[in-house]
Amino acid sequence: MAETLADTGPGPGHRVTRRGQATREILLNTTIKLVALNGYGATSIQAVLDDTGYSRGALLHQFPTRESLMVATAQTAMEQMLLAIEAGLLRYDSLLQGMRDFPTIMWRVQNELPARAFTEIQLASRWDLGLTDGLTRAMHAMDARLGAQITEFAQMHEIEDVTGLIDDLYLLITATQGLAIGRDLVADRTKTAAALTLLRDRFLGGIAQRMAPP
Q1: What is the C-alpha radius of gyration for the chain, rounded to an integer number of angstroms?
Q2: pTM of the prediction?
Q3: How far apart are CA 134 and CA 28, in angstroms?
Q4: Is 105 helix (H, G, I), strand (E, B) or coil?
Q5: CB neighbours (10 Å) of residue 167?
Q6: What are the sequence ranges of the domains in the chain?
Q7: Fold of 5-211
Q8: Quick one: pLDDT at residue 6?
């Protein structure tokens, strides 16, 4: 049976203590680090135990299977990515300024450990179908939150083509993810820089076009 986000934590009726929550966070953050640095296949339960110093019982109390650990890790990694994106946008005085720098924000996020871990688990889901449902839920959560921000931005600036703006955002996210995956394999780094410039120009062009008066 496929593991879902709803059953990655303690069972019904289980009282989650502060200590238990702290243990869970350490396990998840450690798994994010190990998956990002060493890969999905190399991140076994034993590898997480060796890094944290926890007992097998402490881990299995939180995550009964490796699959449930990885689904929760993907969910946590996605949440951390969303928080990093939102923090990047909030650095600016206005949402418009933040949106104009969104390609840079997204590229930075894609190269941090949570995004690298999420990509590793996402790639693994192609042959580990038990991961698919959990990843789908995490991605839907990301789409909903980013979609809400884009809708707010569109309403503030009287942009009617919200769907087109969301499509541009999706293209930017998936393209920067692909560039982050292939960056270390490309001998000529100027190609990556050129591709990022094209993505940025296209994204900014889409914003400018949709904000132009009819």
Answers
A1: 19
A2: 0.84
A3: 15
A4: helix
A5: 12
A6: 5-211
A7: Tetracycline Repressor; domain 2 (1.10.357)
A8: 35
